[in-house]
Amino acid sequence: MPNRKPKTLSAVEQKLVEAPESEYMNAQQLEFFRQRLIALHDSTRARIQEAKDEMLSPPDLSDESDRASWEEQCALTMRIVDREQKLLPKIQQALERIRTGSYGYCMETGEPIGIPRLLVRPTAEYCADVKLFQEMKEHMYRS
């Protein structure tokens, strides 16, 4: 497995991470995440549209193996589009939580989710501990 280099934070992101706990989810932080979520929404919609456009204009493939490869690529693209379409409502819900003042706090415990987690997953609804517990529980019931 390749070694992944950790993403370096921008100056703004670093400032958010280093902010004192007393400033958690202040107006500036909420505006930062609101803008990030809007950009994520726009880029996700653009990727979905690009994928749909690509699939609607297939190349002229006379070779059966090329056609099979194209169909396989389309199936993979459809899975990606499906995942990205599921992300759009999560982004809208996160924007609504910003509007109502509950963004950045775990929906189960009410504890702060944390800036580092929100930078990685701005749609996060749960703190890392609760999410881990939910995934373990889901895995147990699935097995």
Q: What's this model, at a glance?
A:
This protein has five helices and no strands.
Judging from the principal axes of the Cα atoms, what is the shape? elongated
What percentage of amino acids are in beta strands? Answer: under 5%
Indicate the CATH topology. Four Helix Bundle (Hemerythrin (Met), subunit A)
Q: Could you say what the CATH architecture is?
A: Up-down Bundle
User: Which sheet architecture does the biggest sheet show?
Assistant: none
What would your notes on this structure say?
It contains five helices and no strands. The chain is mainly alpha-helical. It has a single domain, classed as Four Helix Bundle (Hemerythrin (Met), subunit A). Helix 2 runs antiparallel to helix 3. The longest helix is centred in the middle third of the chain and has 37 residues. The chain starts with 10 loop residues before the first helix and ends with a helix. The relative contact order is 0.12.
Features:
143 residues; Four Helix Bundle (Hemerythrin (Met), subunit A); mainly alpha
